[in-house]
């Protein structure tokens, strides 16, 4: 067996194939991933810092059991032995889950999220937990209480958010696959700025049971990967109906893996692609626009018919989102009261009241962005303002859904740039929440309507040489359409580029990684 | 504020003011599992032994609605003559409470599953008052706090508090009446009768244990006074968690008297919650309650809408049991009981027991006599519920059957009952094992009669002389010797036969 190859460069599908052929073992793959994490992940001070917790021993134990099972000739699931990283918003039994917040520092859930149960059943070694904006609030991973994740393309830049850790782990070859969650674009926008593939499935396509809720009606877990097929494999492994989540979709999930394989032939004859007029133009970086236009040309080359569609209410989507999200978040975060789990501050004083301890804990445990949104949400829901804010936002939501329905009358999939700009530098938008919020302007409508969305690389922007993304949107429960069209576009773009875009990312240096404590408090 | 409040006599109070009562009753459903998770719930389980990530509100856990609770809610709604909403959502009621794990309660707000119904309430004298039902909605119960170290059992003054989340998430139905108008001096009686009638109805539906002392059924009583029936409603107080029928009546009476005293003295009633004190029979001030408590309700995004299928609702309507009041009337007629007798049976919670005993073959009068007499006495002595005695209606019927066939006398039957209650088996077995049956063997009786005659020559002589009534003493002597196990009529025959009278 060759030892000179870099196993971390293999995609998930290829890893599975090679393990099946006996060319590589799961232990070798996990060891390679752990070595890469060791080399490049570093800490809050330097390096990619994609991981908050690395579960080396557990991952290796699973890998060994998979290798033994394979040697014994046992039938194994498709992704058995392929390592996966999981965003720290997902509850993992026996593994710290902090949601990027001090308030849950050291919390080890006594249960697994459904998607984690499924990944364990699929026998994927879990590498650990990835960094994120605190409570998934933010578009840059700068709001993590444990320090930012850095973009592997340029360590001075943000990796997108809130799932910057998952996207960066995949882009930096620390993991072939990672689980993200997307409330307003937190899978797709990081994918765009790191040159990876990210999918937000149809709302209800992957169970929310065990996802620490940000905004229940918008949250959706999905895959981060380096190819459309890999994303489909992870999507299929964790998706499907879950009786523990009432909002989980019943019935048979679309076969996304078959769709991705099918699309790889690159033929899109008969497919109607809708260009969303309102998602582009002003505010979008020139290089992002140029790569998007090229990608649309490639879709035409593949045989797709391109039409322009209008979604007039998308202009109100961002405002509606920033009322609905904080409203739900203010309620979801009420449980973090210092009484039962996580951080507790101020109970050293025997005279301290429960209210005082709660207040001191929240003051210390929640970051500014979280406090900002709790206050906003509490206000928006309060008597006398409910109709003006939350009620109006829900009406906008209905109008956005109608816009989608009308657009899908005319097109099978919709396309737009994923994010208005390439990765910005740390701190650039930290003091301007509105500028930060605008990053999700193209991704938010899909969350409001519950439709699936995918971001895949469209190329590198001329002005900064950084990745840009194209977003594909499909009607609810037509996730397979995204994978078919995405795989076709990807195949043709790779031909054009002569290989994966990520190969052009600069090599990363080596960064010392601090050990994690047993409670999982990140370095 | 003074510690004690001068009260106005109740009769004076209701002469001067028009009292209005409104009742909110929380009913714990006896579903096997909780409202939003698969945890079982049973009374007296060790603290925090019936909990899971969902009812503990752990980060990431999600609720799933209990279908059996929805069915119970619909049946309650139908039994209360309500409209059943074809579509509804749960809402989050956001507020902080130490024993509420999520710091919001999942409840129904503007879309209750049942609304606009009524319940006819019959008072002791037969007068019927129709109470309007505004709504019945589903929600989850909170956990239970125990405050340790203080003298009052309340949080103030306590050293520490213990929280038991077993109760968190138990399905509740909250039934809210419209203001009950025009009851005048009978306001407290109506309040009590409403809760009693509701309790019987819920018991007949089999949806709840309805044991007030266990908190299965909790009543909040809203009371207000106004100068006259034409005046707008006065400021109300809400007396929380009144946990017995008697207390409902007492608490309403007390509030009427207290508010009348305040108003008469030119004061005003403060809108607030109040606590009822069973021991002293007074209410005390709780927290101020405005109409604008801001719970920041919004539709619960973790649950899909509740959409009861119309056909299913109709099938539930068709399968509702006979309403208790109608059943009482029917059974009273069938059994031929007087009003007072029937009321006693109902109030003692003996209706089902008597009915089952009759069904097992006993005459209604005998069945009633057993349960309301001997068995009630024993239950009271042992401090248990009538239904918890270790004897079944079938066994009571069997016992009465033995009396009817002459095999047991009443007093022997009571001794047999001792054995049954002691777990010695069915009446027949106990009678045999304890040798308690009536002796009708003539030779054994004859010997005893001979001994009695020999021992009482004077009496025997009187009987021989024709004073037949004197035979009683001889019969008594025989019965005494036979320890009651003789057929008195047969003994009399033998005595007269021996003495040739």
Question: Could you characterize the architecture of this molecule?
Answer:
Chain A is of the alpha/beta class. Chain A has 16 helices and eleven strands. In chain A, 37% of the residues lie in helices and 11% in strands. In chain A, strands 1-3-2-4-6-5-10-11-9-7-8 form an eleven-stranded mixed sheet, sandwiched between helices. In chain A, a hairpin with a 6-residue loop joins strand 10 (453-460) and strand 11 (467-473). In chain A, 63% of the residues are buried. By secondary structure, chain B is α+β, with helices and mostly antiparallel strands. Chain B folds into three domains: 10-297, no CATH class; 322-434, no CATH class; 442-499, Orthogonal Bundle (Arc Repressor Mutant, subunit A), CATH 1.10.10. Chain B contains 16 helices and 14 strands. Chain B has helices spanning 10-16, 67-79, 187-205, 245-264, 310-318, 324-335, 339-347, 351-359, 364-382, 393-404, 410-421, 427-434, 442-455, 457-464, 471-481, 488-498; strands at 18-28, 83-84, 91-94, 104-107, 114-122, 128-140, 144-148, 160-164, 171-177, 217-226, 237-242, 272-277, 282-288, 298-299. In chain B, helix 4 (245-264) links the parallel strand 11 (237-242) and strand 12. Chain B is elongated. The chains are: A alpha/beta (523), B alpha+beta (501). The interface between A and B is medium-sized, with 42 and 28 residues.
Helical run tally of chain A: 16
Strand elements of chain B, count? 14
Main-sheet strand order of chain A equals 1-3-2-4-6-5-10-11-9-7-8
What Rg of chain A do the Cα atoms give? 22 Å
CATH architecture of chain A: Alpha-Beta Complex
Overall morphology of chain A:
globular
How many structural domains in the coordinates of chain B?
Answer: 3
Overall domain count of chain A: 1
- What would the average pLDDT of chain A be, to the nearest integer? 95
Q: What portion of residues of chain A belong to β-strands?
A: 5-15%
CATH homologous superfamily assignment of chain A: Amidase signature (AS) domain
Radius of gyration of chain B: 30 Å
Helix/strand-derived category of chain B reads alpha+beta
CATH class of chain A: Alpha Beta
Percent range of helical residues of chain B: 25-40%
Helical/strand content category of chain A:
alpha/beta
Strand order of the largest sheet of chain B: 2-5-6-9-1-10-11-12-13
Mean pLDDT of chain B: 91
